[in-house]
């Protein structure tokens, strides 16, 4: 990454460290790959003024499926009651893709994440297929190896695979492994127990799709509804393999750190979420399926961490996590802007276990930042400027080096 050793100081109309109050015309000083100082206006003479813009921490997208990036517009989301129809479309799409096409789709999605200013990604991938693309890209990432197996035989194979992975865990300075037992309707309870126990022993993050649709709740509570028909049609209906409720996945199984509960659209705020557990809310995907209002505010009121993700291009228009925050702001204008900015930076970094390195602007942190153009307007709360829809290209620094357009495109090239 950056080989420069002399300090460089940048200023902007606003500097948002996330760990402290916004600084009007503040400065960020970078030395090599790290931030040396974040100071108020006048404390240091800047080397570069980026103008009418905000300097914010690098964006964090804790939930993606990069392999579905080729499905943009091909699998329109259904209403919430027909969610399994959309799942059939996703399964059908994946079955048509060759390994080469899947890798191309992954690189396409990665390039889009980089272009929007993402510097930390959580990607769920079958067989960990996105590892090579992410490990070689100018971003941090956690690649969640996905496990699926409701029948006892397939679950046993998946358990053997999980054990094998933990014997030779790949890791780079920018890329780590996680585990993802997919969802309550697709994972045998014994497989869930095995995968999460291995994750605990090896301190790996776990990501689970949980309480995503009303049909999932009906399946677990009464063994009926559209998910039963869906599983029967696939030939994988095994009633004795199911957990009893979404809450059981939290209170009985996933007591380790960190855990990511993806979507949680219909998860009541009553379960005791572990201290290092996180709800990952994907606002525009949630809206596309017409789900009931998300309980993110109730979780926050209970001091549960909530961060924002994009899900995939099979259900979302793009992979821009800042647009997710702007979408929430449009629907909840009374929700504090500083919390929203935290939800796409520090909260995501905490959820993925990277908060010591990134997620805020501060001395000693990695120099991961985004320059976001601002509208020509004044407002009492400067967060409103960052959260306003506004055109303009963003500039991204990762580990002290500016990403060029060519470098960002590397995510889409073999």
TrEMBL record:
Superkingdom assignment: Bacteria
Hydrolase is among the record's keywords: yes
Molecular function GO terms recorded: hydrolase activity, acting on carbon-nitrogen (but not peptide) bonds
Entry-linked InterPro entries: Amidohydro-rel, Metal-dep_hydrolase_composite, Metal_Hydrolase, MTA/SAH_deaminase
Domain Amidohydrolase-related as annotated: residue spans: 55-374
Keywords assigned by UniProt, alphabetized: Hydrolase
Cited Pfam families: Amidohydro_1 (PF01979)
Protein's recorded name: Amidohydrolase-related domain-containing protein
Organism in which the protein naturally occurs: Gemmata massiliana
